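Dear Dr. H.,

I hope your travels went smoothly. While you were away I took the liberty of generating a structure for the chain from your last submission, since the lab meeting agenda had it listed for discussion. I wanted you to have the full record in hand beforehand rather than looking at slides cold. The sequence, exactly as received, is reproduced here:
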Amino acid sequence: MSRSAKKGPYIDERLLKKVSNLKRDDKTVIKTWARNATITPEMVGFTFGVHNGKQHIDVFVVENMVGHKLGEFSPTRKFARHGGRMQKEQEAEAAQKEADAAKAEKESTESTTE
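The corresponding predicted structure, in token form, is as follows:
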């Protein structure tokens, strides 16, 4: 659920203070655990290390992110992949196509150098 409109967006004050102390071109990562903090226009151009429960994931804030939450860009779950026989067959076909393409490219570069 989103925060009510009359309360306004949640913005972590400590985060804004850290942003105001840095210059625009500064490449330092601002570490934060405030995943629920809304991204404001003042945060554009800075890199935040958003905690996902295990580590900090670097999130470079761009203009399109304004209004979203920091936690949206730092996934908390790792997608392993769906398995099964069909998936293995598809991966084997893709690997074979990639190997064939690399072999064809290698042969074409050898023929042009001769």
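Two observations you may find useful: The beta strands are 29-32, 47-51, 56-60. The first strand starts at residue 29 and ends at 32.

With kind regards,
E. W.
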